[in-house]
Amino acid sequence: MAALLRGLRAGRTLRGLSSGKTGPTSRVVAAPSAVNPQCSNLNRGFHRAALRLQDESKSDKPPSSSSSSSSSSTTYHEHYQATEHDTAAEASQHDSASDPAAEQPERPNTSYQDQSGEHGEEYETEEQLQSRILTAALEFVPLHGWSMEAIAAGAETLGLSSASTGMFYNGAGDLVLHFIAHCNSQLTEILAEQHKQVQLGQAEPKKTADFLREAVETRLRMYIPYIETWPQAMSILLLPHNIPDSLKHLSSMVDDIWYYAGDRSTDMNWYTKRAVLTGIYNTTELVMLQDSSPDFQDTWSFLDNRIQDVVNMASSAKQVQSTGEAVVQGLMGAAVTLKNLTGLNQRR
Amino acid sequence: MAASMRLLVRRAVRLSHRNITLTAAGAAARSGCCRGPSVCRCFSDEAEDRSTHFGFETVSETEKAKRVYKVFENVAQKYDIMNDAMSLGIHRVWKDALLHVMHPQPGAQLLDVAGGTGDIAFRFLEYIRLQEERQKRRAARSSQTPSWQDISNNYSTEDESRESRAVVCDINKEMLKVGKQKADSLGVSAGLSWVVGDAEELPFDDDQFDIYTIAFGIRNVTHIDQALQEALRVLKPGGRFMCLEFSKVNNPILSSIYDAYSFQMIPVIGEVIAGDWKSYQYLVESIRKFPNQEEFKGMIEDAGFYCVKYYNLTGGVVALHSGFKL
């Protein structure tokens, strides 16, 4: 009964809120400033709903605490739920059903979510929540730099308190590594898409040098929005406790690029190729940091030159090898002739 | 005449009604005397029968709350001096570590439960003040030649930033009184409030605070799980629960030294400095009765917190537990 009344009152205030009025009842409002917690809780409801759309099942806080803590985000859907299941409805259900317009197709799922309850899914949710916070924090990086303040601002846009930044024990390092991983996965998607196009015959396969150049350029272009603060990010990546992770990301990216370039070598070439590309990538990144030409033209021409150097070196290495072999053969022939002339070669 | 007659009649009816109800009650009482009061007695007996620990003694739950109140009422005046004497000043390090792990952002709202003399709240406000200064310095350094646009923006954004606030809540008025005196002497008043309240039933609305701390107080609470649930209730989503409490020392050598020091030295110091042996005897005994790090972590997770983690300070003498409301 109390739940019904709470739901009705909450529904009335929510409808009042959506129509632009602010007249919350004392029961629903949790803080002195009326509108903001409502909005933030509504946003939290939206984002929770988005999370529901992503992963199927939710197992959340025990019902007793959830029913009390979710009071401000309940809508008339809680009333709807309350009529069906008593107070056993979880906070997830309330939140997922919070937006009536967007969640019409979601409603059939809520009872399915009720059945889930495994602890393992909670941990997955924590990591997903962390990555969501970090993604939201990226837009504050130009303002606050790669720091805890950016993460706090990101958490606040998701409706979470700034204290949730305590979850990131590595602080700014977490943010930078998350961004790098995000860029790498984007690059892999683009390369895979191009590869598929070539497989389907809809595009021409590129020469290795061109492929490398375009891949590195695509990857470096992802830094352009953050180029002002990128030196700070690079210095964070060089901190001792971050070096293993940043090296791992770098090596996997280089590996991906070579794989999609068609490299299937199994000998020393595997190492040399990746080492060469790592060198090209790092130097180009450094050039990009202090490039002020329009659309970073200087950087791309630098990249061109480096790749050209590598190509030239590869061909000249082959030439040197064949020349060397020829020279060695010539010398061997001369030595044998000398031995013949001086009679050392004869067996007595 | 008729009116007065009607009044008389009404009064008589009222009296008779009262008599009837009285006699009815009397009859009920007489007939239900076996059931009624005994039922009540049964209920109160249950509450009294539910016993808990008070140090190494076993007392009823209502009794424990009263005795804890009396303990802290007695020690309130000498609380800070005794802390320094007993822990040889290391308690300051523990509390600073709590703030360091907390790393509060400017604009955060803190609730310090069982905060008594306000140590955590003072440190919190100081930390935030330093953070804000650092931010202002960084902003000034990065914008060496601000344009007029930037300057006007700065003026407008200064008012919008939320002020950080610390609320100290304690069940014991004496401890709060001492805390208020300390605040006055330190000259700290902005953003600080003192509230009397029970950790098991906080006088705050839901979703109010960014950070909830309870430093060396939760072992005195009769129903720890209720206190944890209240913490979950008053925290905003994304809010952090932090608990600093004495815990189990795993190292056997350190443990024996610690035990000897606790049981031999601390009550003596208590008697000498504060003139109260029994309160400090209770203190060291209550430490032994508190669950260990892993058990307490389980209790916090049961209450509904996520990402629960604990840090051992001073080899396990003190554990800092932290959980998030997600």
UniProtKB/TrEMBL annotation, chain B:
GO cellular component entries: extrinsic component of mitochondrial inner membrane
Query: What keywords does the record list, in alphabetical order?
Result: Membrane, Methyltransferase, Mitochondrion, Mitochondrion inner membrane, S-adenosyl-L-methionine, Transferase, Ubiquinone biosynthesis
Segments of skewed composition (Polar residues): 141-156
What is catalysed by this protein?
a 2-methoxy-6-(all-trans-polyprenyl)benzene-1,4-diol + S-adenosyl-L-methionine = a 5-methoxy-2-methyl-3-(all-trans-polyprenyl)benzene-1,4-diol + S-adenosyl-L-homocysteine + H(+)
Q: Where is this region: Disordered?
A: 138-159
Chain sites annotated for binding S-adenosyl-L-methionine = T117, D170, D198, A199
GO terms in the biological process aspect are: methylation
EC numbers listed for it are 2.1.1.201
Entry's Gene3D superfamilies? Answer: Vaccinia Virus protein VP39
The superkingdom listed in its UniProt entry is: Eukaryota
InterPro entries with a match to the protein in the record: SAM-dependent_MTases_sf, UbiE/COQ5_MeTrFase, UbiE/COQ5_MeTrFase_CS
PROSITE patterns, alphabetized: SAM_MT_UBIE, UBIE_1, UBIE_2
Query: Which class of enzymes does this protein belong to?
Result: transferase
Which pathway does this chain act in?
Answer: Cofactor biosynthesis; ubiquinone biosynthesis
List where in the cell it is found.
Answer: Mitochondrion inner membrane
The terms under GO molecular function for this entry are: 2-methoxy-6-polyprenyl-1,4-benzoquinol methyltransferase activity
Q: What membrane topology term does the record carry?
A: Peripheral membrane protein
Q: Is the keyword S-adenosyl-L-methionine in the record?
A: yes
* NCBIfam families membership: MenG_MenH_UbiE (TIGR01934)
Read off the HAMAP family from this record: MenG_UbiE_methyltr
Function comment: Methyltransferase required for the conversion of 2-polyprenyl-6-methoxy-1,4-benzoquinol (DDMQH2) to 2-polyprenyl-3-methyl-6-methoxy-1,4-benzoquinol (DMQH2).
Please describe the quaternary structure of this protein.
Component of a multi-subunit COQ enzyme complex, composed of at least COQ3, COQ4, COQ5, COQ6, COQ7 and COQ9. Interacts with PYURF; the interaction is direct, stabilizes COQ5 protein and associates PYURF with COQ enzyme complex.
According to its UniProt record, which protein family does this protein belong to? Belongs to the class I-like SAM-binding methyltransferase superfamily. MenG/UbiE family.
Name of the protein? 2-methoxy-6-polyprenyl-1,4-benzoquinol methylase, mitochondrial
Query: Which organism does this sequence originate in?
Result: Amphiprion ocellaris
The gene coding this protein:
COQ5
